[in-house]
Amino acid sequence: MNYLAHLHLGGPGREDRLGSLYGDFVKGSPDAWPAGIAAGIRLHRRIDVYTDEHPQVAQAKARLPATRRRVSGLLVDVFFDHCLARLWHDYAEQSLPSFVADCYRTLLDEPELPPRLARIAPVMARQDWLGSYRDFAVLERVVEGMARRLSRPELLAGAFAELEAAYDGLLDDFLRFYPQLQAFAAAERAAARLNG
User: Fold this and answer.
1) Under a CB-based contact definition with an 8 Å cutoff, are residues 19 and 41 in contact?
2) CA distances from 14 to 103, 108, 109, 196 (A)
């Protein structure tokens, strides 16, 4: 899953949200961080493993051409964040604009972000990365940005058009998968509270 889903699944607290994002920006043991952030990083990693191993996600990846095998996970993650933003009202009580504003405030108020996250957090907030995913056309720019960061950008050439062609099937995959992922994340958070 991508940033919006991790923030949604990670829990409502400040440390929950920070840990939900840090999972993409820190390597190794999370124990150097405060306990709540470390728990969020661990949850982020468990969500990633659950997602990567889930048959519905495998089906979603298979909807893309075989030539996308190496990047299909990235593309499905981004597409699923689009689905979550588009259908937010089905999965959350707080409005999407309010939720993302809270997330940006948490990030921008945090003085000790991991270096790479510290560099992108102001851009993320200014360009409303999280809320803009509602608009499918935004994914074209997202895919182009991902391509620029790859050592082989050609792996993503034409990928947006393929997401567009597979839209209905990928949306169906999301609708089947996301409630299961929500249940998994809630159970993991509950287990962490009991063991914490």
Assistant:
1) yes
2) 8, 12, 10, 17
pLDDT tens, position by position, 163-190? 999 999 999 999 999 999 999 999 999 9
Q: What gap in Å lies between CA 85 and CA 133, rounded to an integer? A: 6
Cα distances (Å, whole numbers) of residue 73 to 37, 63, 164, 187: 25, 11, 16, 24
**CA 53, chain centre distance (Å):** 16
> In the structure encoding, which two tokens stand for residue 101, read together?
């504003």
Per-residue DSSP letter, 134: T
Nearest in space to 177 (alpha carbons), one of 92, 20, 55, 6: 55
70-108 pLDDT per residue, tens: 899 999 999 999 999 999 999 999 999 999 999 999 999
